[in-house]
Amino acid sequence: NAGVMQNPRHLVRRRGQEARLRCSPMKGHSHVYWYRQLPEEGLKFMVYLQKENIIDESGMPKERFSAEFPKEGPSILRIQQVVRGDSAAYFCASSPLPPGAYNEQFFGPGTRLTVL
Amino acid sequence: AQRVTQPEKLLSVFKGAPVELKCNYSYSGSPELFWYVQYSRQRLQLLLRHISRESIKGFTADLNKGETSFHLKKPFAQEEDSAMYYCALTGPNNAGNMLTFGGGTRLMVKP
Q: Which of A85, A89, A95, B26 has its CA 20 to 30 Å from the CA of residue A11?
């Protein structure tokens, strides 16, 4: 099992462009979480998804950010019209168990987004 | 609101010295507490969780509900312990067990 995969590892965008970050969970994991880490800060929860469903997006900015986890393929975090404040490390984590049972989250290596 | 606070951004100790990384939290109800570690150029990984009451790599952490703390301790630090350490919590109030992280403490163990 290769672990949680994220790509790209580094992404550079100019202001106003779109950023697409991909996360492939561990095999057999159907629960995906996205976290953002701003410089000098801890990780902050953004969104929790199961296959084809957004369960909790309470940490997502209301505008320009969206996430999906289709039936086939990786989870995608999409940021439209990026601004300099979006520069951060974005981490994906996956888990095999549903809520209600203790579940360890396994983290990917992160995508470092730089907005010029 | 739930919150995790790690008051020290950087902790520097000599090899063989005791280590204590502080973590305080606020949460309505009964949280589950964790310590995650990120070694240089590696991904974030779970170090230990309070429900397991286990010791990993010589580290232990006791949940003190009265003081709302979950400090990480090791009696004798090793150079390979140098890393970023994050305290985190989850609980029944968190849909899908999403984690709330502290700001992290960088531990540097000098030879």
A: A95
